[in-house]
Design a protein that fits this description.
The complex is a heterodimer. By secondary structure, chain A is mostly beta strands. In chain A, 14% of the residues lie in helices and 44% in strands. Chain A contains one helix and five strands; from the N terminus they run E-E-E-E-E-H. Chain A has a five-stranded antiparallel beta sheet with strand order 3-2-1-4-5, with no helix packed on it. In chain A, strand 2 and strand 3 form a beta hairpin. By secondary structure, chain B is of the alpha/beta class. Chain B is built from 15 helices and eleven strands. A six-stranded mixed beta sheet of chain B has the order 4-3-5-6-11-10, sandwiched between helices. Chain B has a five-stranded parallel beta sheet with strand order 2-1-7-8-9, with helices on both faces. Classes of the chains: A mainly beta, B alpha/beta. The complex binds iron/sulfur cluster (SF4).
């Protein structure tokens, strides 16, 4: 239940709802906690609500973090 | 780790560092159940030098939900005729006498939903029936429950309630800080809360790294944790900035603050932690199933043989529990840590133990 899914916004619906695609599974989720979503954005979904925008890809980010460290 | 032929040079260096680490011994608690499972699934434990020990902490909301809560949910279904809507993981968690799936077998209307919003929609479609959503979870799921109440108000519903057992992680960090050298903080929780809590822990001398959930993110977070630990100064690092920002989600925090307030909460196997729970404010008592149906308090009784409390606090490994893998298996779980897909016992059972 506590597992978050990263998903791509496919379509903006009305009333704070967006259609997302999570690895091929499409679903409507609540998006009223996030402003300015656009199709193509990536979001983190928990319990049917998009809780955060994802701003980068993980490989790029981990490389940046590690480059300074090791 | 699973084969990844495109592994970057920095990631390779991180793996080499973790494999060959020969500094002071370090214990790292992965507070979050999803971290525990991903670490096993990706084979990351095999990458760690013997000087690095991972401890599975209390960060699975199902595992820390007390038997007394299940008893109340069962009472809603069987004694009050309420349609109980829940995430699937809670179905088989043992209560004092029975689980929710047993209550369903005895005629209770218990339904599995994907989101609190789905329960609210069911209530809107069936105004003649009372509905209760089992609101269990940490900071990541609490906003969804509050959104469902928000929509119940919008839709003018009088047949929708929450049975709350929502919890907040900082109380768990405080309670666990002496069981570990540092924390792997759950990234999604901090997507909501921001970094204030981890900074506060650092000021108290407790170190940790906010970690994401992919193999690369977990390896990165572990390498940072071990490297920084060697420097001997309390630290925090946000190793998940693509999702976690300094301030977190003001919208989610405002939504939760509108409908809920902190309360003391009982954690299965750990006990009462002050101000570690969230309940509906008095102004919204009509959406509170415990108030509305005058459900009695009661902590319920866990199976006395179950060592979940020690497992959740990092005092023993699942394999040290005498019931592990014999009496207690995912098919016939004795304790919540074996029921939940995020529980430490289920992870050890599924992925074959320590190494
Ligand atoms: S193996 Fe089962 S009984 Fe033992 S601690 Fe884990 S859940 Fe509890």
């Amino acid at each position: 239940m506590c597992v978050g899914l990263s998903a791509k916004v496919v379509k903006i619906k009305d009333k704070g709802t967006v259609l997302v695609d999570a690895s091929g599974a499409k679903r409507e989720v609540a998006a009223s906690l996030l402003d300015h979503l656009e199709p193509g954005d990536y979001v983190m979904v928990h319990a049917g609500t998009a809780i955060a925008k994802i701003t980068d890809d993980d490989g790029h980010e981990t490389d940046n973090l590690l480059d300074h460290l090791l | 780790m699973k084969q990844n032929h495109q592994m970057s040079a920095p990631l390779r260096r991180a793996i080499d560092f973790l494999k060959t680490y020969d500094g002071p011994e370090v214990r790292i608690m992965e507070v979050c159940g999803t971290h525990t499972h991903e670490i096993f699934k990706q084979g990351i434990r095999q990458l760690l030098s013997p000087k690095i020990t991972l401890i599975s902490g209390p960060g699975c909301p199902v595992c820390v939900t007390p038997a007394g809560y299940i008893d109340r949910a069962v009472a809603l279904a069987l004694d009050h005729g309420v349609t109980v809507c829940t995430f699937g993981d809670l179905m088989r968690v043992p209560g004092t006498e029975m689980s929710l799936s047993m209550a369903r077998g005895r005629g209770g209307d218990v339904r599995v939903v994907y989101a609190p919003e789905d329960a609210e929609k069911l209530a809107a479609e069936h105004p003649e029936k009372p509905f209760a959503f089992l609101s269990v979870g940490f900071e990541t799921t609490t906003p969804s429950s509050c959104l469902a109440v928000d929509h119940a108000i919008r839709d003018g519903l009088d047949n929708f309630t929450l049975l709350t057992a929502n919890k907040t992680m900082p109380a768990a960090y405080e309670a666990m800080k002496n069981s570990t050298d540092l924390f792997l903080y759950p990234g999604h929780v901090h997507a909501i809360t921001g970094l204030a809590d981890v900074k506060k822990m650092q000021q108290e001398g407790v170190s940790g790294v906010v970690a994401g959930f992919t193999a690369g993110e977990l390896i990165t977070a572990l390498a940072i944790a071990v490297k920084k630990y060697g420097e001997g100064v309390p630290f925090y690092v946000n190793a998940y900035p693509r999702v976690v920002t300094d301030e977190g989600s003001p919208e989610a925090k405002q939504l939760v603050a509108k409908y809920m307030e902190p309360c003391d909460a009982w954690w299965r196997g750990i006990g009462m932690l002050p101000d570690s729970g969230m309940r509906l404010k008095k102004a919204y008592a009509r959406f509170d199933a415990a108030e509305r149906y005058a459900l009695p308090e009661g902590n319920g009784k866990d199976n006395p043989g179950c060592h979940c409390g020690d497992v959740l606090q990092g005092r023993c490994r699942p394999e040290d529990c005498p019931l592990f893998g014999t009496v207690c298996t995912p098919v016939h779980p004795t304790g919540a840590c074996m029921v939940s897909s995020e529980g430490a016992c289920s992870a050890y059972y599924l992925y074959g133990g320590e190494k």
